[in-house]
Hints:
Strand order of the largest sheet: 1-2-3-4-5-6-9-10-13-14-17-18-19-20-23
Number of strands: 23
Amino acid sequence: YYHAVNxxxxxxxxxxxxxxxxxxxxxxxxxxxxxxxxxxxxxxxLRLTSTGDSRFQWMVGAFYENNQDGWxxxxxxxxxxxxxxxxxxxxxxxxxxxxGFPVECPTPAFNDIWYIDNYDRDITQIAAFxxxxxxxxxxxxxxxxxxxxxxxxxxxxxxxxxPGLPVEGILLDGESAFIEEGKESDTAVKFGxxxxxxxxxxxxxxxxxxxxxxxxxxxxxxxxxxxxxxxDPDVLNNxxxxxxxxWLDNRLQLNATAFYMTxxxxxxxxxxxxxxxxxxxxxxxxxxNLGFEVDFDWYATQNLRLSGSVYAxxxxxxxxxxxxxGAQELTAGTKxxxxxxxxxxxxxxxxxxxxxxxxxxxxxxxxxxxxxxxSLRRAEEANPNAPPDLDGDDVYVPGxxxxxxxxxxxxxQIGYASADGDWxxxxxxxxxxxxxxxxxxxxxxLGYAEYWGHTGFGATNTxxxxxxxxxxxxKNF
Length: 477
């Protein structure tokens, strides 16, 4: 089994490619992937709210949620035992057995299944909350809220390549599977102050908090000091001021908000470029986002309606992050991935009254999303303050730009509604211009281009749905 194929293929260098993609030297390019999934969620909430005209109003409540989900995934390749992948499996299993691990050599075949993944997750959340409103004057109102919550989480993940062979998928040093469990609790607060300028306009200031559960890391990655055993929760602090208003005899609604957010102990995904199972999460300093949002809804005439929104923000990391191994993986000033600096929407609705005994309407809407980075590493490459890698290569790539370009999409509708409201008919055209909009750029297969010298591997774009035309008919009984 050690020499089932040329020794060049039985090497760690090629292992990753053969382990995941049984594509070369087999004469077969494909397989069957099955996924059996199950999910159940139970949610209960109870609220008690004051009534009356008092200057003091209150609300208290309790919350319970249990979420259980999981899957069994399996990949199957015809004639698995005749492939290079299977030859390497035997090489690996016999090698591990020789090192003293409880691995069977040779590995038995299970119906051409080369990969199996069993995943179970059980998360329970309980919370108690309350909020009060107090009118300091007729127009000035103070709001305060408090929410205590507790998460209890258990995640079990058992992966094998193929069944019976724990090749780094199951941990080899005594654990049968990766188990993540923990219980965390925290308290989030909210404070607000609002002032009614008149019956149609109000200005406000608000402070609120958000919280994300921490957890535990893969024990094998912990043992080699790649990530900490436990990563902490991260917290978002939100400060905003704004106005909510109606104008022109309430035909125009206009809202505007300026916000400043600070993010503490940000949870970062840490991955090794050389060893796939070296992965986990760690807390990596802070971040911030400063910007504004504006939205409007205007009935220009009885038949014409215009609405839209504008968002502008500047989200970036404020601290360096250095791994437990001493490598600087994140530099202050790096832009946050998947976060466009600007977004715009605009919609026009027009209704023709009393047509064929009903109303006909037209709607044209569009939205624009600015460019952004698809990954933290790509954003780090664009930061001129990033230090060199440990191997001496520069992280900063001069001229590096966002790898998810900005895009604009539009939709169109034409519809008819009967005067009595009993039935409607709508023709919809989504992505009217058939824009080839890239919403995410993945780099997961770039390494295989180096392995094989094959141009078929490389960055992958996730494109938005192309132009889609549909018709909907609704009848009310």
